[in-house]
Design brief:
The complex is a heterodimer of chains A (225) and B (129). Chain A is an alpha+beta fold and 225 residues long. Chain A contains 8 helices and 8 strands; from the N terminus they run ααααββααββββααββ. In chain A, helix 1 packs antiparallel against helix 2, helix 2 runs antiparallel to helix 3 and helix 3 packs across helix 4. The longest helix of chain A is centred in the first third of the chain and has 24 residues. Chain A is flat, with a radius of gyration of 26 Å. In chain B, helix 1 packs antiparallel against helix 2, helix 2 packs antiparallel against helix 3 and helix 3 packs antiparallel against helix 4. Classes of the chains: A alpha+beta (225), B mainly alpha (129). The interface between A and B is medium-sized, with 14 and 15 residues.
């Protein structure tokens, strides 16, 4: 029993490590070969998890080998467009200027129901409104609306907008995030001083961040009980 | 910044392939040493040197106990256990002066188990397919 528990922990950590090495992708964004590798890895670690007679190395070595193969493929795809096309395929245009490309749909085995569903998920109900719908190599559909149907941007209305930047987290669950203070050009004293204005201590704060204008967002911890 | 990925990939492949070759070499060596020892014991029995054969089997068991620990890291434990059980059975029969006809079957099985350690892991087209 203890052996099983230990082995599961080791293999679990290995899978996390391997996934980190392979990079951040959601399942829906995986390339076909990446999805295949993810499924193979999960299968490989299951065997030594289930059977203690199988050495841990029988799970670890194939996982490391397949990770190395995946890293190699990823590297080659970044270096060669030909290799990228060979491994991941090319995008396919499904709708062009409001017209469905029937040949491409047949080639990709992409049916109308699926297309309409994807369009609805992109907030589009009329095919005629679509300039381009492109089936990406990951299987996701990118929808580009015709110019008159696109949402209006502030720039088109000649409205001046200010730089918003990215808010920086200062306090998480009652603790100052010291490594972020430098980015925010703040000191601990600055933060404490600001909190005092609201009669708060750092420990009382559940979350606080600061935006590019120097404005704080502060949320107090809820009282227990 | 210099991209070290290709070096990492090459080093990774060298390590993995090196470990694979090293493992196969180790299986081959253990298998050959064990079978040589078993053949010597069989010869001792054929010559009627029971004491010498008992010493031989004890020597093999002692050596096997050391190799077993390493083999269990790389091989299915059932394969390793088969050899251990076979060795213990032969030792017990030898010490109880059982007839050698019976033992020849045990020795044949033991040699097969040991050979399989090497053969099942050889880098051959049969094993790959």
């Amino acid at each position: 029993m203890l052996i099983s528990i230990f082995r599961v922990f080791v293999l679990y950590l290995l899978v996390i490590l391997v996934m980190r090495i392979m990079g951040k992708r959601e399942i829906g964004q995986l390339q076909p070969y990446e999805l295949a590798i993810t499924l193979i890895i999960s299968e490989l670690v299951t065997l030594p998890m289930e059977d203690n007679a199988i050495p841990l190395l029988d799970g670890v070595m194939p996982v490391l080998t397949i990770t190395l193969a995946q890293v190699t493929l990823s590297y080659l795809t970044t270096k060669s467009q030909w290799f990228q096309d060979f491994i991941s395929g090319k995008y396919t245009i499904i709708i062009e200027n409001g017209k469905m490309m029937q040949k491409n749909m047949t080639k990709q085995k992409y049916n109308i129901t699926e297309l309409l569903e994807q369009l609805r998920m992109n907030g589009v109900t009329k095919i005629d409104d679509v300039e381009y719908a492109i089936l990406e190599t990951s299987g996701q559909l990118s929808v580009i609306l015709k110019a008159p149907k696109r949402p209006v941007a502030a720039e088109q209305l000649l409205v001046n907008t200010e730089y918003e930047g990215l808010p920086i987290n200062i306090i998480l669950d009652g603790k100052i995030v010291k490594e972020n203070l430098e980015d925010a050009k703040l000191t601990i004293q600055d933060v404490e001083k600001r909190l005092k204005e609201d009669e708060l201590d750092v420990e009382d704060v559940f979350f606080a961040n600061i935006d590019a204008k120097g404005e704080y967002y502060i949320q107090k911890k809820e009282l227990e009980g | 910044m210099k991209d070290f990925t290709p070096y990492g990939i090459i080093i990774g492949f060298i390590i993995i392939i090196g470990l694979g070759i090293g493992e196969n070499y180790y299986f081959k060596r253990v298998s050959k040493d064990m079978i040589d020892e078993v053949i010597l014991i069989e010869e001792d029995i054929a010559l009627g040197n029971i004491d010498s054969s008992i010493e031989g089997i004890e020597r093999i068991i002692e050596k096997w106990r050391k190799d077993e620990k390493i083999l269990e890291i790389m091989l299915n434990h059932q394969k390793v256990n088969k050899v251990s059980e076979s060795l213990v059975e032969i030792e017990s029969k030898l010490k109880n002066f059982l007839n050698s006809d019976n033992l020849s079957t045990n020795f044949a099985a033991l040699k097969e188990y040991i050979k399989n350690i090497e053969l099942d892991n050889n880098f051959t087209i049969n094993n790959i397919l």
